[in-house]
Predict the 3D structure of the following.
Amino acid sequence: MSPHKEPVTVCCAQVVSRWNEPGKNLRRAARCAKTAAEHGARLIVFPEQYATGWDPSAASYAEPPGGPVQSAYAAIAGEAGITVAGSARITGDAGLMNACVVYGPDGRLLTSYAKMHLFSPAGEQMVYTPGDSLGCFSVGDVRFGLAVCYDLRFGDLFRAYARAGVHCVCLPAAWPCERLHHWRLLLAARALENQYYVAGTGTIGTTPVARYCGGSAVAGPDGDERAAAGDGERLLFADVDPAEVERVRASFPVTGDRRDDLYCTL
């Protein structure tokens, strides 16, 4: 029998991102993190490029590793005593990346993940370089993975996280209103097919790029929604229970019937 593992409360911060106003957005993030911690959350996840607003065609606010937006998230984590998942436009040897960064309650970097699937319908691949590796971290007994927005449409990435042993994939996003139905379907599908949690954090409001309607939700390992935020500003809370992941997989062991030896040859 596996040793007992404690659940972790996750907060999805569905809040308006003020276009090109990182100072205001990050001050709001600090207040959200403090509130989330006071309500028992140990991890808070902000929407994709929350500090500046998502812009697939702009390299503005690009910064090196450890730059000002990243440093602000680190400070927020340390001050609130909570793990924080934020994002920044990070430059490096490979180019400019749309990256998610995670800081522990001591303000130290736990992991980073660069968006692997760039949104070509909006030309994101013309400005950014895709990532090529997973991003995993732990909070207590729970192992988390990271994906970003458009990544949700690519099931192989989520299967890779299942092989890596995560209990939950956190997904910061800027998913537009007109495709919100896809978002909800895919959150549930990724959770169900991998029998783990998926926590999607969407932004809201209108920018020069699109109109956003939130839709933040947490799907459990059985594919059912555990929490959903609707279309207004909200801090959405849900528990991620690693024991439930184990129970669901034991009661319906679908993974054992996969034909990974065959799929790549078809």
